[in-house]
Amino acid sequence: MSLDPVEEEIINASKLLSDYIIKVRRDIHSYPELRYEEYRTSKLVEEELVRLGFQVTRAADTGVVGILRVSEGRTLALRADMDALPIQEENDVPYKSRVPGKMHACGHDAHVAMLLGAARVLSSIKGRLRGTVKLIFQPAEEGGAGAKKIVEEGFFDDVNAVFGIHVWSELPSGVIATRKGPMNASSTSFAIKIKGLGGHAAHPELTKDPTVPAVDIYNAIQKVVTRNIDPFTPVVVSTPRIEASKASNVIPDSVEIYGTLRAFDMSVRDRVLSRIEAVVRHYAAAWECEGKLEIVGVPYPPVVNTPELADFVLKVASKIGKTSEAPMSMGAEDFSFYLQKVPGAFIILGTRNESKGIVYPHHHPKFDVDEEVLWMGTALHALLAYNYLVKNSTQV
């Protein structure tokens, strides 16, 4: 793939920034912050953006938006999420988390570092850009729907397109991937609450035992999918958390079951929720208990990429490395809230390297990334901005 002089400059500058990107990533990794607690990270980001000449605004409580406005024209948003997870790190590395019980086990530290690298590159080629670039350093992707807040606060009202890059543990290091249309499933967390009458386990006839319908409901939920949804339509319902009695000789007053529902079609999701609600209510009533279904937290819609922009990403990405079609994932991403507002594409950068022992999945206490390819994320961010705003490679 032939490169023009600016593209060559972007790629070379990104490679030269590799040590900087790794240093920033390790600094953030050492001091992880959970959703809406990203005070240290956002301060680091803000100071760097101000130094580079970006207009900086705080967003979504602990988020930062950096704006590079060059001229009239289109506005492109590039996004990195910043929050960590409540996981105790088990890696034995110099940059191991220094905060007990908290860890960057999903790669958001790398996302911040790559986008800060892109900020440096874009600042250096500012004279050859047109339009506006918005760098979105977003809090609370992990269950806090930080993207939803960013949109609600108006930061996407003037945006024409958005791209975001996520490091990916299942993809070989250095491979860049995306896909047209649905890429990540929706996520809806729910709680099933069954209320009965507790008592001594030796005399169940004197109780209205909520554990009886709870077992039936647990099993029946899977039948909702197999008997109500087309088998070629991907749907996952998992109920990994059950809270009931604390003793073997005590029948509890209530049982709570917590789960998650994943789907790529919101109408399918709604149909499954409706059937689960009916199962909960009627199964509980059959055993003289009360049952109800509650939605917990903020549901995430599916990530649905704009087909033309997915093609655009792969074309641009081929200038720096190998590309492939990303697999569909039942994992959710609040990048979906941006795509509900404007066209765009979610992208994954492979960081799996078996020769280095970097093989653990996201959200694992030994998760890590192959840092040698992070410069590619920086280069891709900057190349997308240049090609979208200046070369006008896509008319979307």
What would the principal axes of the Cα set say about the shape? elongated
End-to-end separation in angstroms reads 22 Å
Mean pLDDT: 97
Order of helices and strands: HHHEEEHEHEEEEEHEEEHEEHEHEH
The count of domains is: 2
Extended strand count: 16
Largest sheet: 8 strands, mixed
What does this molecule look like?
The protein is of the alpha/beta class and 396 residues long. It has two domains: 5-183 and 302-389, Aminopeptidase; 186-299, Alpha-Beta Plaits (2-Layer Sandwich), CATH 3.30.70. Helices cover 34% and strands 26% of the residues. It has ten helices and 16 strands. The strands form four sheets. It has an eight-stranded mixed sheet, with helices on both faces. Helix 1 (5-16) packs antiparallel against helix 10 (374-389) and helix 4 (108-124) packs across helix 10 (374-389). The longest helix has 21 residues, at 266-286. The radius of gyration is 24 Å and the shape is elongated. The protein starts with a helix and ends in a 7-residue tail after the last helix. The mean pLDDT is 97.
Secondary-structure blueprint of this entry?
Elements: H1 5-16, H2 18-30, H3 39-51, E1 55-59, E2 63-69, E3 75-81, H4 108-124, E4 132-138, H5 146-152, E5 161-172, E6 176-178, E7 181-184, E8 186-195, E9 199-200, H6 211-228, E10 235-243, E11 250-251, E12 254-263, H7 266-286, E13 290-300, E14 303-305, H8 307-317, E15 323-325, H9 336-341, E16 344-352, H10 374-389
Parallel strand pairs: 3-4, 3-5, 5-16, 6-15
Antiparallel strand pairs: 1-2, 2-4, 6-16, 7-14, 8-12, 8-13, 9-11, 10-12
Helix pairs in contact: 1-10, 2-4, 4-10, 6-7
